[in-house]
Amino acid sequence: MDDWKKKAEDWWETSIIEMSPGVINYRGHPIQELIGNVSFPAMIWLMLRGELPSDAQADLLGHALVAAVDHGPQAPSIAIARMAATCGVGINNAMASAINVLGDVHGGAGEQAVAFYQEIDAMVGGELSRDSVAAALEKRSAIDKYVPGFGHRFHPVDPRAPRLLQLVEEAAAKGVVGGRFATIAQLIEATLAERKGKVIPMNIDGATAVVYAELGFAPPLCRGLFVLSRSVGILAHTWEQMQQGGRNKGPLPRDATWTYSGNRASSAS
């Protein structure tokens, strides 16, 4: 019986949570000591990294999470949440429907950008310069012309990116982060502008990737962090749609039907 009990206890071995009657410890910290003393961004850090961040690190993480909360119903995830809400499902179902479309194309660029910055950093090595980053970018472009984190189909200049970079620069000046990945991102932006003959500005994914890279988060975690951030907007839009009502609202109004491009039956002679 003891062997069976030990096997059962080891089945889901974890260093994240310890729990027994009257005891809840996250990463070794009693929950009652965390409540009221730790911010939500700091709690995310603790759960993912196994240690509490400094207040300045938690603040910078929180800034990135705030920046990506919502982008309106023109974003597929938000539109899907609102459509799902009109189908009579619960709030969790609508949120899950939206979160499930946050993939490589919609929601994954932040992860890709962090990996991209790290790749450029490894290729450059040593001191950063416009020439060294341009050379690394040239090598990468020969393989993949897509540059994650730059350009936006809606915004000529993404208003979120400059503010996040400003906050990273302030954090670097205080020694909270090193600032190397911010420099890499800015040099990439300058190189792209030189090549294209016009500015291809950093977007929200590129800017949050700077924050996450500076804070040392692994690329796959950055997609999860985006999901946490965007879930706030998804929840807000789901709840608003539930208050507005409506039944079975699709992507188009009833009198704006889609363009049919298939065959048509010939009329009877």
TrEMBL record:
Biased composition (Polar residues): 258-269
Coiled coil: none
Top-level taxonomy: Bacteria, Pseudomonadati, Pseudomonadota, Alphaproteobacteria, Hyphomicrobiales
EC number: 2.3.3.16
Family classification: Belongs to the citrate synthase family.
GO terms, molecular function: citrate synthase activity
Gene3D superfamilies linked to this entry: Citrate Synthase, domain 1 (1.10.580.10), Cytochrome P450-Terp, domain 2 (1.10.230.10)
Name of this protein: citrate synthase (unknown stereospecificity)
Keyword Endoplasmic reticulum: no
Domain of life of the source: Bacteria
Ligase is among the record's keywords: no
Gene Ontology BP term (one): tricarboxylic acid cycle
EC top class named in words: transferase
Alphabetized UniProt keyword annotations: Acyltransferase, Transferase
Start and end residues of each stretch annotated as Disordered: 243-269
Pathway the protein acts in: Carbohydrate metabolism; tricarboxylic acid cycle; isocitrate from oxaloacetate: step 1/2
An example Gene Ontology CC term for this record: cytosol
